[in-house]
Design a protein that fits this description.
Elements lengths: L3 H7 L1 H14 L1 H6 L5 H8 L3 H13 L3 E4 L2 E4 L1 H6 L12 H4 L4 H4 L2 H7 L15 H7 L1 H15 L5 E5 L5 H9 L4 E6 L1 H13 L6 E5 L11 E7 L7 H13 L1 E11 L10 H13 L8 H10 L5 E5 L6 E5 L1
Parallel strand pairs: 3-4, 3-6, 4-5, 6-7
Antiparallel strand pairs: 1-2, 7-9, 8-9
Helix pairs in contact: 4-5, 10-13, 11-12, 14-16
Amino acid sequence: MSPAKIFEFFSGYQKSAAMQAAVDVGLFTAIAAGHTTVPLIASACDASPKGVRVLCDYWTVHGMIHKVGDEYRLSPEAGMFLDRRSPAYLGDTLGFINGPFTDFFDHLTEAVRRGGCESRGSVESEFDGWVPFAERMGAMMFPAANAIAALLGPRSGRVLDVAAGHGLFGIVLAMSNPGLQVTALDWPKVLKVAERHAAKMGVADRFETLPGDVFTADLRGPYDTVLLTNLLHHFNPDECVALLKRLRGVLRPEGRLAILEFVPNSDRVSPPAPATFALVMLASTPSGDAYTFAELQTMLRSSGFAHNTLHHLEDSPEQVIISH
């Protein structure tokens, strides 16, 4: 037996810090641009040769870089997701993942004892973390947004995008359906980001905002489609039912509700991403959780959604539920 795996868990924070440093100095982008030796990379990154050498070797050990002699090359994953020039670049998401949520994990022991964080956490009114989320996490949501649009099929009428954040779920649906009108609900500062995205993607004339709290705001229904993405996991089952009943009240009888969630299997330890997401909710919310499909189905049926189908996505760790 070896304690190596245990020590890997002990030092996990070092990987996050090393990735943040590499993204900050543009290490992967410099190598992708043809700067393949330490002096050339150091010059391109405005960093010390020693610092670049240590960082390159570190990521060689962990498989993001390949080293041949004195030259470094990117792995296919690093080239796709960590080169700033790539349309699939994910480096900006570190500003959210290593930003506002790290404070919650500093108090994880207390959350374990309590069953949730002491404050309102990420569900606090106008929590500061949702602006960087809207600005930096949108790129990760395109596969899921396209999948939801495909699952819903041709749509017309009005769409309510709840906790819209970056706005991409409603925007992508509007781009697929020229007659669709989108109402994006979120906090005022977050909606400014969504408005910028709507203008950039050519749907600003069919995109309106509704600032406020989904539990108390006038939702201005009725709607033909409601998008409820990455929100239910922030609340306990009773709160989820209250929210779903509100949404059922503004959805036309023939309308559709599309839910995006991390849905673990009934064993709660698979698949890995949905199963471990429960820890994020334990750290950052008073009573949130990752719910199984059976649990979500119970909530939905008690809220007036009799028909619910679960869909697994190829390019996302999350699952979609289409309800009516």
